[in-house]
Write a structure and sequence with these properties.
- The chain is mainly alpha-helical.
- Helices cover 81% and strands 1% of the residues.
- The chain has helices spanning 8-42, 44-83, 88-119, 121-128, 132-144, 148-164, 169-191, 201-226, 242-274, 278-294, 296-314, 318-352, 360-393, 397-422, 427-434, 437-451; strands spanning 458-459, 465-466.
- A two-stranded antiparallel sheet has the order 1-2.
């Protein structure tokens, strides 16, 4: 199979689907970057504490992404079946049942995380750091973010569902609007402009909450009132989902479990970093945003890969899906190289954009971390497009769950702890070993793609295996 070939329809499909997703991801990351930059001009302690508190919110965010991407595997396949006129009535029903199950689970998780942020915020912060000032400021941020979980969850999962049926522009426009709400709120509430109180880190949390409310309501109204492709309405939230429950658990829950355990692993990485000192925490706060900016195109192609693979298989074209898988692998290599160049050329201006409160040692560590990231990103780009895109779109969710977490928990976290706490290696090597699972997963993805066992049957829940590509 070829990694690169002339296939204009394929690359056009990737661009049409992936570019709006990448732009929306950029907007989301940019919101976080603005929070950090504005808070860094307030104090280094504030933006370090917010970064650690956001690790807890990101934990929830990954749960939502797992729910959304798991549902996307089914939604894109069922939508492909509808377009191919295959069991249309069953496919439509199963599509709506999938969204209902996803929304119900999301509300359960949002409730759990919200209870944690209001009842035990200091205990949560103690998991990430033992620095008292970070604990105090981070607990304040979490308390003000309690209701944010519900609106963040709604906007995340609905945006993924809309993208799965080719509607990626509307979530992008909504995110751009939320960006301006957040920016204005930060300016007013962090620094106390226009007669508002100077609230610092609490103001950043309130501004983010306001942006998430606007984003969630817009996405929810569009899905349940204006959308025609899915046809989901308020009454469908109360529909009977029993017939699809087994298939949903089989296909979607491994994605949720995989992302949840992966999120726990990433939180463990943050906990390790949080106990390496205040300057290491500040440096990681800077590099996290830079890394996220460097991967926006990758994330767009990831989701495009899952959608295109699912819809291709929904049309019954197995050979074409396999061919597209190798082309996505080639895209991963190319985007990884571009991301590494992006980090190399932007690291100095990005670090310089942070306030004078940032110490010289934190700046030095940030440079080392970005050098490590520029190497790791070559592998991260490739395996992300395969695991979160092509292989997941093929329904290979159980194997992905095992691979994701075996490499993280058996390889990366032990090596990172060894490098940081026992060998006391320089920051470059600590971060490199904390992310070493990315290298191992890249090798595994190539072997899995060659094995041709990643395409799985998916049914509508009526005991009829559908979309198997003969």
């Amino acid at each position: 199979m070829k990694l690169f070939k002339k296939d204009k329809p394929f690359y056009k499909s990737v661009l049409v689907l992936g570019f709006p997703i990448a732009l929306q991801t950029f907007v989301t990351v940019f919101v976080g970057m603005l929070d950090n930059i504005m808070l860094s001009h307030h104090s280094q302690d504030s933006f370090s504490a917010a970064s650690l508190a956001n690790a807890y919110i990101s934990f929830f965010q990954i749960f939502c992404m797992g729910l959304g991407m798991g549902a996307s595997v089914l939604v894109s396949r069922y939508y492909g079946m509808k377009k191919a006129n295959t069991e249309v009535e069953k496919a439509e029903k199963a599509l709506k049942q999938t969204i209902t199950l996803m929304l119900r689970l999301m509300l359960v998780f949002a409730t759990i995380f919200a209870i944690g942020s209001i009842l035990i915020p200091r205990l949560i912060m103690r998991m990430y750091t033992d620095v008292d000032v970070f604990v105090d400021l981070g607990a304040t941020y979490l308390r003000y973010s309690t209701l944010t979980f519900f609106f963040l969850g709604i906007s995340l999962v609905i945006a993924i569902v809309l993208r799965s049926v080719g509607q990626s522009r509307f979530p992008l426009y909504v995110s751009i609007g939320a960006l301006f709400v957040n920016l204005g709120g930060n300016y007013i509430l962090i620094f106390g402009h226009f007669g508002a109180p100077k609230m610092g880190i609490a103001g950043a949390a309130i501004a983010t909450f306001a942006a998430r409310v606007c984003e969630a309501l817009a996405d929810l109204i569009y899905l349940m009132v204006y959308d025609k492709k899915i046809g989901y309405r308020i009454r469908h939230f109360f529909m009977n989902t029993r017939s699809l429950l087994h298939e949903y658990i089989r296909v979607c829950i491994p994605v949720l479990v995989s992302d949840a355990i992966l999120a726990l692993g990433n939180n463990t990485v943050t906990i390790v970093i949080g106990h390496l000192g205040e300057n290491f925490v500040a440096a990681n706060s800077i590099t996290t945003i830079t890394q996220q900016l460097s991967t926006v195109l990758i994330q767009g192609v990831c989701q495009a890969g899952a959608i295109i693979t699912g819809q291709t298989l929904g049309h019954g074209k197995r050979d074409k899906a396999e061919e597209q898988g190798w082309l996505f692998l080639g895209l991963g290599f190319a985007l990884g190289f571009l991301s590494a160049l992006f980090i190399f050329f932007t690291k100095t201006p990005v670090i310089a954009s942070y306030g004078k409160e940032t110490t010289a040692e934190a700046v030095s560590i940030a440079y080392q971390l970005l050098n490590a990231i520029s190497l790791i990103i070559l592998f991260q780009a490739t395996n992300s497009i395969m695991t979160k895109g092509v292989l997941r779109g093929g329904g290979d969710t159980t194997m992905l769950m095992l691979a994701d977490n075996i490499f993280l928990w058996i390889l990366a976290i032990p090596l990172g702890c060894l490098a940081g706490f026992i060998l006391k290696l320089p920051p470059f090597w600590i971060y490199f070993f904390l992310k070493s699972d990315q290298i191992a997963k890249t090798i595994w993805c190539v072997l899995r793609l060659r094995g041709r066992k990643w395409i799985k049957k998916i049914s509508t829940g009526d005991d009829t295996a559908l979309a198997e590509n003969k």
